[in-house]
Amino acid sequence: MSAETVPAVELPGGEMPAWSDLATGRAAGGEPLLALLARLVPVGARVLLAGPHDPALLDRLAHAEVTCLLRGEPDGTAVAARAARTLVGGATGIDGAYDVVVAAAGLAAIESAQDRPLGWTALLERLVTALRPGGLLLLGAENPFGLGRLVDPVPWYAGRDDADWAVEGILAPDRPADLDQLTDRLTAAGLHPWGSFAAYPRWRSATALLATGPLAEQRGSGLFDAVLHDACAVGERPVLQDPARLAVDALHTGLAAALAPGWLVLAHRPVTGAAGAVVAAAPDRITLPVALLCAGPPGSGVTEVYDGADGWRWRALAAPTPNPAAEPAPPFASREVAYRDPGTSTGRVPEGRLLRTVLLDAVLRRDLGALRRLLTAYARWLAGQGVDDRLTGAVAVSGLDNVVVGAAGDHAVLDPGWQAIDPLATEVVLARALWRFAADLLTGGYAHPWPSTLDVVGLTVVLGGLTGRDLDRAIVAIAVEVEAAVVAARRGLDDTARADLAAALRAVTPTAPPTGRESVQQLREAWLRQRAELTRLTARLAWTEQLLTHRERALRRAETKLDLLSGTLGYRMGKLAITPLRLARRGAGAAKRQVRTAVRRQQHGGEQQ
Fold first, then answer.
1. Which site from 32, 208, 435, 571 is most exposed, i.e. has the minimal number of CB atoms within 10 Å?
2. What is the DSSP string of 458-508?
3. What letter does residue 566 receive in the DSSP assignment?
4. Number of domains the chain contains
5. Where are stretches of biased composition, namely Basic residues (predicted)?
6. For residue 66, what is the domain's CATH number?
7. Cα–Cα dist 290/287, whole Å
8. Residue whose C-alpha is closest to residue 44's, from 22, 63, 57, 30
9. Domain span at 549
10. What local confidence, expressed as pLDDT, does residue 586 receive?
């Protein structure tokens, strides 16, 4: 049969005619995953993409021969033109030998409802069988007790999605329950695990891939602190509690890798024969990064952190080539304030703790002395970075969540990739950092040593006073606009979304929950603050009413006393004595007016003569 007569989609059996994983958002993707695979797959390698993956991945693997295994016919039709071969069916249709096997969406996404159920272990054996000796397997797995499930209002066992025809979770005996069990299963299948990454904030479409070894060891790393907070702070679905706070807490307890929403594990099959495969020496020729991050809006490329000779270092990877058929993205609303410059993401990653975390610790301990020293040192460092009281570059758009404090108390910008287009006043930069910190304190429900009657701007002014600077509300208002512009640039918002964001930031109140996704825990804390405020206002209103009642009673007693005195003999005699004086006063006034009138007439007559 000639190549022209070979069907674009092969149906080995078990296909699902009407099912689509791509349309339901169950495909594995994300720019960090694409960057990782571009490094793992050599030129000319035979690659099997088992399960649903982002079609953009096929464009990044154009240098390889890619076979796609999908269970839904609509998905197979959608990717057939980009792949060298497309199989639509269950795992029983896997054939051939491949240099790289990728199942980043997990093994459950391979199994078809129209095929014989195999189970997790049998599916892994199928993939291992399809892997050449020396080949490489990249396997994704959801954490059954990960951050995603801990904050999800919908329990994992509910199974309300159409894809949950068989709900598998932590109760399944053959399914690995943690990362250690996952690597043990790979070892038992004849593979050698040699690398793993924690996927945040979603395991299928991670914006941050963090090496699990350093993530578990470097508990106080400012880099991991900032990355986890930024990755988990953005989202639209309601959650039970703030995932950003939970992820940072997990980092400081050494559980950030264990509680990750999911993992990506790399394993290679040892060479047993004389003939090696294309990637026979994959662990020797590939250096795995410490982290792969999306530090900018979608499409801005990936930033890598790798372990150099002098410590961790930044490296910006090339952004993916845009699709010519796609419509151009609208200009960012904050181009006049900040932009992402991948060329500046170079050099060593500064060591130390994140300044935001250090300040939070001082606030929670109510250590005003330490807080004053930290804020004063930060303000002094900012002033030393500027020229003529104006800041440029990365310092101008870096807040407390992008500055680390070293062991010696020195400060440094963590990620220098974001740059300011125009210089900003040092007071505005300081006010922006303090306003955001104050907003996080009040709306996040953190305990603090200041009165509850302070609003966000008022607390910003108080924090500015701790630095020795006199920040007024006008400066803080400008800082809020700068904050909206910087956040809009980071998220790639258009003009309308930026205006909505600026309005939301200006309307932040201490009794409101944080802006962004809804959290049940934070909503409850906001309700408690509102209840406390209403209780305070009710008590003040009751005190005011009590004071008014007391004054009214005193007034009535005075009126009653006057009424009683008006009927006595002394009052009447005094009134009779005063009456002639009143009449005399009135008469004197009338005589005075008559004299004045006569004088004016006389003067007027003399002038006429």
1. 571
2. HHHHHHHHHTT----HHHHHHHHHHHHHHHHHHHT--HHHHHHHHHHHHT-
3. H
4. 3
5. 593-603
6. 3.40.50.150
7. 10
8. 63
9. 521-553
10. 82
